[in-house]
Amino acid sequence: MEITFYYDIVCPYAYLASTRLPSLAATLGARVRWAPLLLGGLFRHVDGPQNPGALMASARAAMNLRDMDRWADFWGVPLRMPSAHPRRSVEAMRLIVSAPEDVRPALSRALFQAYWVEGLDIADRGVLATTAARFGVDPAAIDAAEVRQALFDRTAEGARLGLFGVPAFTFDGARPDAPFFWGQDRLGFVAEALGGDFDAPYAHPAAVVPAPPGTVLELFHDFSSPYSALGAFQAEAFAARRGVELRLRPMLLGALFRAIGTPDVPLYAMNDAKQRYYGRDLFDWAGHWGVPLRFSDAFPLRSVTALRVALAEPRATMPLYRAAWLDNLNIGEPEVLGAVLKGAGLDAASLLARAGDDADLKAALRTNTAEAEALGACGAPTWVVRRPGEAPMVFWGQDRLPHVSAALGGWRAPCDRLDASSSEATA
Question: Which domain holds residue 96?
Answer without folding.
Answer: 2-193
